[in-house]
Structures are given as C-alpha cells and as structure tokens.
Specification:
Elements: H1 21-41, E1 45-46, H2 48-51, E2 53-60, H3 67-75, E3 82-87, E4 89-98, H4 104-118, E5 122-130, H5 132-160, H6 163-187, E6 190-191, H7 193-223, H8 229-239, H9 241-261, H10 267-295, E7 297-298, E8 308-309
Parallel strand pairs: 1-6
Antiparallel strand pairs: 2-4, 2-5, 3-4, 7-8
Helix pairs in contact: 1-6, 5-6, 5-7, 6-7, 6-10, 7-8, 7-10, 8-10, 9-10
Length: 316
C-alpha cells in the first residue's frame, strides 16, 4: 500500500533569497549592535551559578517531595533568586538561593529560616556555598567553552570545504550567539550554566543547518560551472529549503511542548533553544550563504585544483 507524502514546502521554489541579502545584513547588523549595547549597559541577569549562593539538598521523610509547595514556601521568604529542582530520587529536592547581602552570618540566617519554613517533614542532607571565586571560574569556563566551539567549527568547515565557507559559518554562529545574549539581556531572563549549554547546542544546530546548504552549494558548483554565483546560491538554498523548514518546525514543536509542559527548571534552557532555532535557521539562509557571494568561492571542485573565482559584479 502506497502512502502519498505531504509537501509542506512546494517543489521547485525559486525564492530570490540572495537578492534580499542587503536588507538581511542591515537588519542583522542593527540587531547585533542593539544586543551588544544592551549587554554593555543593562547586562545579564546572572543566576546563582555565576553570582554565588547556597545550595541545599533536602529529602522528604514521608515520600515524594511536593516541588510546587517547596518553591512557593522558599520563594515567599524573599531571598532573591531561588532555584528549586528535583534530582536523583522523587524525595530529593535541591534548593539554591543567591548570596545574601552581608557576611557569612546572613547566609546562615537564611539557611536557618529555610529549615524552619520547610519544617520537620524534610531532612537536610547537605549544604554547599558557591563563593565568588567558584562563580568567577564558572564564568571563565563558560566563555572559553563557547569560544573554543566557534574555533573548532572554523577549523572543521575549513578542512571540509574552503576558508570562505568557514568564514560564512563562523559569521552566522557569532550572529546567533550575540542575538541570543541580546534577547536574554533585553528580557532580563535568568542566565545560568544551562544557558551556556543552550548556546553550545545552538552552535551545533546552526552549524548543521549551514553545512546542509553548503553541501548543496558545493554540489551545484560542480554541476553548474557557468552559472552566476548569486543564482547558484539561490538554487542551492531553494533545493534545501524543504529540509530546512521541516527540521526547524519539528524541532520547534518539541521545544514549545517542553517550554509549556517541561516545568520551571528547564524553561530558560528551552527558551534559549527556541530562539536559537529561529535565528539559526534565518542565519543559515540569509547570512552564511550570502557571505560566500561577498568573498567569492572556488568554482572548480574536480580535485584538479583551480583558481578562486569571484563573480564580477555580484557582490554589489
């Protein structure tokens, strides 16, 4: 029995993406400048991981812990940023509060107040204080992780294609990361270590999208040796458009479900991923590919060498 597939994107589309590059570059440039300005002036709403705080492990003595109840009780104490999450066992809860103003005595008073609030129903199993030194090291490690990921991508794309492709991919990745940091600064969403993980995931997702388009560009460079580069890029993007849209939409469906039903603990991570998928899809089409037009690409992929070729007049 044969099943007829459903086409979400019509075959043979001829959307002139490359001709929209100037508008895309202007919009992206404005968005990146705004993001940097927001980060410089408004900053980020750093979570406990980065500003330091107290981590408390508690276990409900009678059975599974009521996370919502713990969150409501501890949140009402006014200790600022509070994170409540379940871990390991349904009875175990991890309570994290930011560093309290004052000396160590202020943090101890906060801990005592939490013990009184949760009462005898909970056993306090472990308490750790994340000091400024540790949080500073975490910040440094997060920055190094993101920069290292971009450098590795640069080398990988360079080895697989040519330096022009690696330049386009890295420009698109930096674009995605800057805009993600910008939206977190604008909305003052909590920026935690999980957001660093989301940034690294966005790098991987955006790169995957870009490589799919680049693979088709390389195939078409072999196939259409005389076709002007701007037309060839349009053909390549349109030929991979169905795959790009379907991948992004299905990923977004899963992420939106997680955002709505996944709970408070992963909401920041999922939001970053949703935003990353949107800007990553945009950048693979409107940033990564048009950069090839600006810098020119190798036209001879027969393995016999060949000079670099820049299409005259196409980068205007």
């Amino acid at each position: 029995m044969a099943f007829k597939g459903i086409d979400f994107v019509p075959h043979g589309t001829k959307i002139p993406f490359v001709s929209m590059r100037k508008i895309a570059f202007i919009l992206s440039g404005i968005a990146m400048i705004a993001s940097i300005a927001l980060f410089s002036t408004k900053g980020l709403n750093y979570g406990i991981d980065f500003i330091g705080g107290t981590s408390i492990e508690v276990r409900h003595k009678a059975g599974p812990a009521d996370i919502a109840d713990v969150r409501e009780k501890v949140g009402a104490l006014g200790f600022g940023d509070v994170q409540i999450q379940q871990f390991n066992d349904p009875r175990d809860v991890l309570v994290r509060i930011e560093s309290q103003a004052g000396d160590e005595e202020a943090n101890q008073k906060a801990l005592d107040k939490i013990k009184v609030t949760l009462g005898d129903a909970y056993e306090f199993r472990n308490t750790e204080v994340i000091g400024p030194t540790v949080s500073g090291e975490l910040t440094q490690a997060g920055i190094i992780a993101v920069i290292t990921a971009i450098i590795v991508v640069l080398i990988y794309i360079w080895l697989r294609f040519e330096w022009q492709f690696s330049l386009g991919a890295v420009v698109a990745l930096v674009h995605d990361i800057v805009l993600t940091i910008g939206i977190f600064s604008l909305l003052q969403l909590e920026f935690t270590l999980s957001i660093i993980a989301a940034l690294l995931t966005i790098v991987g997702y955006s790169l995957n999208d870009t490589v799919v388009v680049y693979d088709r560009v390389r195939e078409n460079l072999r196939k259409y040796k005389k076709m002007p580069l701007n037309e060839l890029l349009d053909v390549s993007i349109n030929e991979t458009l169905s795959r790009t849209i379907l991948t992004s939409v299905t990923t977004l469906i899963a992420l939106v479900s997680l955002f709505v039903f996944g709970g408070e603990v992963i909401r920041g991570f999922v939001f970053a991923m949703i935003w990353g998928v949107l800007v990553g899809t945009y950048s693979s089409i409107f940033i990564a590919s048009p950069v090839l037009l600006l810098v020119g690409v190798k036209r001879d992929w027969s393995g016999l060498g060949g000079a670099k070729f820049k299409e005259p007049g196409t980068a205007k």
